[in-house]
């Protein structure tokens, strides 16, 4: 049965037809036509032919014509463009390179008072075309669940001194053992500490246990300065989506270690710019000794917390500087004076409870509170902030006039037509999209499973690696639309999480994605993504290439950025029209990707491009 869809990504597995596969050998191109006869290549891609079997007799003429067309196009491109050659490797100094965070260049440009540490992509357009190499001792991450608790120390930039000086409670929860970093101890004490802390927070907001977070409306947590992800990992085990946001650090980065564990994280600063989220995005914001002075900068940091918090949401702060001398160790319902008391009153927050160094505030559910006329209240912003993208921090209250102003306790457990219309989405479109992605995920997994979980040639530097050699823990969906891929993976019980990127220039569906309890950010794909190298196991983009072309972005720069953030032996799945797909297939050979085009055979000019990044180093 055919599956037709406006995006034209996939049809049923038995209708998938493998068209051609090109790979670079020196400066020559070799075309291997496998549609009819198969291939003797030793590439891991070969195993896919056994799982995808088209009717070769019915499609003989079409396949023959397609193969001939592919060959002539590749021949003309290789002859006519003598400048095509492999992209070289970057120097060792770029092993952990993150564009847009060049402190020296920012300082020379006149940024100061901390703003030199902020994201400034306008100053980082270096156009150095090279591939970020992995560190000398890099190893493929361990598969989950072991990989959440143990990482290879050679995969991250962390000195022993930085490890020993780690200060916060979350940073202390790790052990350095030979060539590994472990985030647990043999006696289980460290894990128990995190569970006890989570249980404490649950009790402070009136729950019996942290297993009741979901019942209380807490599904998404923004974890600021997340240590190295131990609290986020625990919340993930409770089926909450906790996204770590931390400042860029050239070494010893908490974000990099969190990502290396395969946990959700992005680089983000509380300095001068807003975070890449719309207003009313998160059910809880958490900071445990995250190093931010919250009542500085004319209260702008707390106002930004208020902006991203949903009505009735919680701000949890654990920090010794919030506790005044002589204050009791436990207090409830705003009876205690704190350094942030005046500011939180202006924001219509109520202090639920304090225990030792931990405070919990709750945001009001009454949007009229901000216009009560009390002296010193923060003014309301003008208009919605749906498409704000790294704009300057604003001293005004957002979201009070939005149809999305719905208390977290009043939210329905599943999306209904009324909620979809609030997000500007027609219910028929949404449910059609959901059905399509259920089918697509089945086909993706059928296509990739024999590749990802099959035996793989021994890697450079590995004497006797143990299986499984490949796995997918996380996916970056570069054009997420409604988050349908994320939802379908959850429904299919795949143990992966998805970072849903909503590109600038399309209908902003990020509020809907976050409302569904998924992780996501706004992003301009003409700029680098706010993450460290080797972050994701799989990159996915439906219609991404056409969008990039419409925005005037450099396709080769986007592909190099994809290579930067993809781990060695990671995968890329791109779906688009024939023209953009063929162009990217040619460019893929320059950056050493193994690339295969799949003809969907649904009567459209849509194609699927499946690539794998090799493990390359010198």
UniProtKB/TrEMBL annotation:
<keyword id="KW-0808">Transferase</keyword>
<dbReference type="InterPro" id="IPR004159">
    <property type="entry name" value="Put_SAM_MeTrfase"/>
</dbReference>
<keyword id="KW-0472">Membrane</keyword>
<keyword id="KW-0489">Methyltransferase</keyword>
<dbReference type="GO" id="GO:0008168">
    <property type="term" value="F:methyltransferase activity"/>
</dbReference>
<dbReference type="GO" id="GO:0012505">
    <property type="term" value="C:endomembrane system"/>
</dbReference>
<dbReference type="GO" id="GO:0016020">
    <property type="term" value="C:membrane"/>
</dbReference>
<protein>
    <recommendedName>
        <fullName>Methyltransferase</fullName>
        <ecNumber>2.1.1.-</ecNumber>
    </recommendedName>
</protein>
<keyword id="KW-0735">Signal-anchor</keyword>
<keyword id="KW-0325">Glycoprotein</keyword>
<dbReference type="Pfam" id="PF03141">
    <property type="entry name" value="Methyltransf_29"/>
</dbReference>
<keyword id="KW-1133">Transmembrane helix</keyword>
<keyword id="KW-0812">Transmembrane</keyword>
<dbReference type="InterPro" id="IPR029063">
    <property type="entry name" value="SAM-dependent_MTases_sf"/>
</dbReference>
<comment type="similarity">
    <text>Belongs to the methyltransferase superfamily.</text>
</comment>
<dbReference type="GO" id="GO:0005737">
    <property type="term" value="C:cytoplasm"/>
</dbReference>
<dbReference type="GO" id="GO:0032259">
    <property type="term" value="P:methylation"/>
</dbReference>
